Amino acid sequence: MNLFGVMDISASALKAERQRAEVVASNMANAETTRTPEGGPYRRHHIVFSTAKPSFPQALESRMGAASGIGGVEVREVVPDSAPPLRRYEPSHPDADADGYVSYPAINPVEEMVDLMGAVRSYELNSSAVTASKQMIQQSLEILR
Amino acid sequence: MSFIDTPTLSLLQRYLDLTAFRQGLVASNVANVDTPGYRTRDVDFQAELQRAQEAGPQVEEVPGLVERPDGNNVSLDREGLLLAQTQLQFRVGVQLARVEFRRLLTAINEGRQG
Questions:
Q1: A2 touches chain B (CB under 8 A)
Q2: Are strands B60-61 and A73-80 parallel, antiparallel or unpaired?
Q3: Does the structure show a pLDDT above 60 at A103?
Q4: Region B82-109: what's the mean pLDDT?
Q5: pLDDT of residue B114
Q6: Between the CA atoms of B93, B97, B98 and B104, what dihedral angle is there, to the nearest 10 degrees?
Q7: What is the pLDDT of residue A116?
Q8: B34 and A CB contact within 8 Å
Q9: How far apart are CA B74 and CA B100, in angstroms?
Q10: pLDDT > 70? residue A61
Q11: Which of B31, B35, B94 is opposite residue A139, by nearest beta carbon?
Q12: What is the pLDDT of residues B43-66, one digit of tens each?
């Protein structure tokens, strides 16, 4: 594994954390959405991370005896929450059912904010990992001076 | 062993390789900080430095870390610290290599004058 490979690992995490922030933003934006193309209210979405499959150079290295098993992260899927929608009594609302209840997405803004903060912190840590690798590459050039 | 390939330089090469490898491990741990079930991995730096490097370094799970409910045990503090530490170690290795090369260069230049 060379130092550029290290940057690829951190880059995969930056991408994944950004996607996580996007999902959270979408959840918060649609906290009051009662209509979706699929019908019914918006459903809260979860992002599922898994360790990334090794890239071709990594797989080749591991075949050639170098230690392996280190890799980045990838977004496996974005799945809707299974929680039932919240029902509020608003008989005059156009999306109210026969009993006068409107189904709203079961989204807790506090929960979303905490998730967003987690994503931001992880993003920061990974971006400092990129900076560290970058400096190591620059320092290795110093040997030639 | 040639004149350029001194024991110090080959040790330094191993040191730099191992440091760069460890940086990759730390980056991988940090990247998977939110992956459920991921376990922190590391190498025994001293032992690997002593060992002749025919095969790649031995990667092991790190014991004694607090596990979260999702089975992940990556500690941001530990990884952040290691990130800085590994970077400094790499810098030390680079500086030592420079000194070693300068020593060789001095020997070459002194010979030219005599």
A1: yes
A2: unpaired
A3: yes
A4: 91
A5: 59
A6: 160
A7: 95
A8: yes
A9: 38
A10: no
A11: B94
A12: 888 888 888 666 678 888 898 899
- Residue type at position B99: V
Take residue A31 and report the two structure tokens written for it. Answer: 């906290």
Sign of CA dihedral A124, A6, B19, A67: positive
Residue with tokens 């071709």: A56
* Spatial separation of the C-alpha atoms in residues A79 and A75, rounded to whole Å: 11
Chain B residues lying within 8 Å of A132, measured CB to CB: 23, 83-84, 86-87
B99 contacts chain A (CB < 8 A)? no
**Residue bearing tokens 């800085």:** B84
Domain coordinates of chain A in residue numbers? 3-144
User: Which pLDDT does position A38 carry in this prediction?
Assistant: 86
B58: which 2 tokens?
A: 């031995």
Lookup result for tokens 């991370």: A49
Written as six digits, the tokens of B22 are 């460890």
A6-39 per-residue burial string, b: 16 or more CB within 10 A, e: under 16:
bbbbbbbbbbbbebbbebbeebeebeeebeeeee
Contact B24 A65 (CB under 8 A): no
Q: How do residues B3-17 score in pLDDT, each as one tens digit? A: 677 888 888 888 998
